[in-house]
C-alpha cells in the first residue's frame, strides 16, 4: 500500500508546532518555532498575526517538507489550529488592521461586558452562555474595537480568530468551525451557523463574520500565492480547522462522553465531552467537534506562563546553564522539589499572575505567595506554584462532580507533560488517574488526523480512536491526596479572603 501523508500545524501562545503523519498516524516529521507575546498594558495581550501566526506557519510548513524529504504533492490535506478565541479585524485581502487581541487572557473589554450585560439583561446572557459574559467571549472584544478604534472598525471586512486567519491566508476563504464559532462568537450566529442580524446590530454587520462550517469540512484549497510562501502544492485541500484546545483534545482521543483532556500549555485548558449541555456560571459549555456531542470546558490564565516566569526571573542560573551546557532549565528547576514536603512547609501560591478565567472569572485577581518565612527557598516557591495549578484544576473537578458530569478517563497533553514530577503532583492533589497519549506533540497531531478525515481517508472519529496510542499513566498516591485536602481548603478560601484587597490594588 502506498503511503499517504497529512500535515497539521498549530499556533500557540508562545510556540507553534507542526507535524506530518502517514496513513497509520505515524509521525514522519515535526518542527517547532518559538515566538513572543506582547503585553502593552495590564490585561492587554496581543500577537502580530502576520509576523507570528502566518510567519510561523510558513516557516514550519517549509521545514516539515525539507525534513521529511516529501514532494509537496505527497501532502494530501492540511489542517491548522490556533489559540482561541482571538479577535482580529482584517481587510478583504486578509491583511490585519491591528494586532490580534488574544483569547481570555486579554481582559481589556470589561466595560463592554458590563454594557452588554445591561443592554441584553442578565437573564438573556445566561440563556445564551449558561454563565455571565467573560473575557473569553469575542463579542465584547469586537465592541471594544468599535468603541476605541473606530477607524479600524470602519475598515474591517471580517472579524476573525486565529485558525480562521490562517485558513484564509491559505485558501482565500473566510471560515470558522462550529465548535469555535458558535461558542466564542456567541450569540452573533444562529444555531444553524448563519449570522443573526438582530444580535449583530450593536456589535458588527452580519457580513463581517466568517462562514460557519464543520471542523473537518474542506474550507478551500492552497492558493498559488500561499503555495509560494509555504512550500505546499497549489490546490492542496485545507480543512476549516479549529482552536488549539479542540484539536489537542482530538489528538488525545477525547471522542465520546466521559472523555476528558487536560491541556498543560501556557495556560490550563480542559475539555470534558458530554452528551448534553451543562449550565454553570463558573465554566463554559458548547457543541463539541465530534457530531452529536457537547462539552464542558474551562481555562485558567497561567500554567506554563508561571513556570516560564520562574525560569526567567528566579532560576536565571538554570537558564544560563541551559545555554552553556544544553541541560534543560526546567529539568534543573525540579532538582530537590521531591524533598519539599506536601504543602511546601506552609506556603500557598495563588496563580493569578494574569488575572483568572475559570472558575473565579476575575480579570482583576492577583498572584500571591502566602505564608512566606525565612526558611523558605526558591524550591519551596516553585513547588508551591506547581501545587497551585493542581489546586486550581481540582476546583474544576469538584464543579464537574457537582454538575454530575461523568469522567471516564483523563488525558493530559501539552508541554507540562514533559515534567513527570508535576504530573504526579496533580494526580495526587486531584486523586485522579491521569494518562498521557503516546504522541504528545498535541494539537498539530489532531490537525493532521482531522485533515485525513476532511478528504474521507478516515470515515469517522471512531476510526481515529483506533490510531491513538497510549503513553504514561500517573496513578494518585491516596495518602498524599488526603494530606493535600487541608491545603486545598486553604487555597479555596485564600482568594475569597483577599478578593476585595486585590481589586483595590
TrEMBL record:
Q: Which Pfam families match?
A: FGGY_C, FGGY_N
Q: Which InterPro entries match?
A: ATPase_NBD, Carb_kinase_FGGY, Carb_kinase_FGGY_CS, FGGY_C, FGGY_Carb_Kinase, FGGY_N
Assigned EC number: 2.7.1.17
Ranges for domain Carbohydrate kinase FGGY C-terminal come to: 279-454
Gene3D superfamilies, A to Z: 3.30.420.40
Q: Which GO terms describe its molecular function?
A: D-xylulokinase activity
What the record says about family reads: Belongs to the FGGY kinase family.
EC main group: transferase
Q: Which PANTHER family match?
A: SUGAR KINASE, XYLULOSE KINASE
Superkingdom classification of source: Bacteria
Record key words, sorted: Kinase, Transferase
Which organism is this entry from? Caproiciproducens galactitolivorans
Q: Does the keyword ATP-binding apply?
A: no
Query: Could you identify this protein by its name?
Result: Xylulose kinase
Carbohydrate kinase FGGY N-terminal domain: residues covered = 5-247
Q: Does the keyword Transferase apply?
A: yes
Amino acid at each position: 500500500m502506498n503511503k499517504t501523508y497529512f500535515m497539521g500545524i498549530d499556533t500557540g501562545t508562545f510556540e507553534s508546532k507542526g507535524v506530518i503523519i502517514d496513513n497509520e498516524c505515524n509521525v514522519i516529521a515535526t518542527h517547532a518555532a518559538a515566538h513572543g507575546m506582547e503585553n502593552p498594558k495590564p490585561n492587554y495581550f496581543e500577537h502580530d498575526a502576520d509576523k507570528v501566526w502566518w510567519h510561523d506557519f510558513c516557516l514550519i510548513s517549509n521545514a516539515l517538507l525539507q525534513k521529511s524529504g516529501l514532494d509537496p504533492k505527497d501532502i494530501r490535506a492540511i489542517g491548522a489550529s490556533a489559540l482561541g478565541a482571538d479577535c482580529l479585524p482584517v481587510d478583504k485581502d486578509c491583511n490585519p488592521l491591528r494586532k490580534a487581541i488574544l483569547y481570555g487572557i486579554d481582559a481589556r473589554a470589561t466595560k463592554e461586558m458590563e454594557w452588554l450585560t445591561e443592554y441584553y439583561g442578565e437573564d438573556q446572557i445566561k440563556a445564551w452562555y449558561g454563565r455571565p459574559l467573560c473575557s473569553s467571549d469575542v463579542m465584547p472584544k469586537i465592541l471594544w474595537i468599535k468603541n476605541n478604534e473606530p477607524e479600524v472598525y470602519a475598515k474591517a471586512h471580517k472579524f476573525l480568530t486565529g485558525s480562521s486567519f490562517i485558513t484564509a491566508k491559505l485558501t482565500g476563504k473566510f471560515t470558522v468551525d462550529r465548535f469555535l464559532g458558535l461558542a466564542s462568537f456567541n450569540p452573533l450566529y444562529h444555531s444553524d451557523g448563519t449570522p443573526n442580524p438582530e444580535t449583530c446590530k450593536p456589535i458588527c454587520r452580519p457580513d463581517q463574520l466568517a462562514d460557519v462550517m464543520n471542523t473537518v469540512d474542506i474550507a478551500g484549497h492552497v492558493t498559488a500565492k500561499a503555495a509560494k510562501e509555504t512550500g505546499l502544492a497549489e490546490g492542496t485541500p485545507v480543512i476549516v480547522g479549529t482552536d488549539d484546545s479542540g484539536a489537542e483534545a482530538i489528538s488525545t482521543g477525547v471522542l465520546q462522553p466521559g472523555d476528558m483532556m487536560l491541556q498543560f500549555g501556557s495556560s490550563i485548558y480542559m475539555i470534558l465531552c458530554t452528551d448534553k449541555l451543562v449550565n454553570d456560571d463558573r465554566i463554559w459549555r458548547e457543541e463539541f467537534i465530534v457530531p452529536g456531542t457537547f462539552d464542558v470546558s474551562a481555562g485558567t490564565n497561567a500554567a506554563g506562563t508561571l513556570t516560564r516566569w520562574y525560569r526567567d526571573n528566579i532560576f536565571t542560573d538554570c537558564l544560563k546553564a541551559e545555554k552553556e551546557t544544553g541541560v534543560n532549565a526546567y529539568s534543573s528547576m525540579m532538582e530537590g522539589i521531591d524533598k519539599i514536603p506536601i504543602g511546601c512547609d506552609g506556603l500557598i501560591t495563588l496563580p493569578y499572575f494574569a488575572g483568572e478565567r475559570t472558575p473565579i472569572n476575575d480579570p482583576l485577581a492577583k498572584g500571591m505567595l502566602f505564608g512566606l518565612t525565612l526558611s523558605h527557598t526558591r524550591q519551596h516557591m516553585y513547588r508551591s506554584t506547581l501545587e497551585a495549578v493542581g489546586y486550581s484544576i481540582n476546583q474544576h473537578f469538584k464543579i464537574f462532580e457537582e454538575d454530575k458530569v461523568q469522567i471516564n478517563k483523563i488525558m493530559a497533553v501539552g508541554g507540562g507533560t514533559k515534567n513527570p514530577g508535576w504530573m504526579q503532583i496533580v494526580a495526587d492533589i486531584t486523586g485522579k488517574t491521569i494518562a498521557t497519549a503516546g504522541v504528545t506533540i498535541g494539537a498539530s497531531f489532531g490537525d493532521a488526523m482531522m485533515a485525513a478525515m476532511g478528504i474521507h481517508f478516515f470515515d469517522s472519529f471512531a476510526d481515529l480512536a483506533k490510531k491513538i496510542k497510549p503513553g504514561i499513566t500517573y496513578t494518585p498516591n491516596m495518602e498524599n491526596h488526603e494530606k493535600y485536602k487541608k491545603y486545598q481548603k486553604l487555597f479555596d478560601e485564600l482568594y475569597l479572603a483577599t478578593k476585595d484587597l486585590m481589586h483595590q490594588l
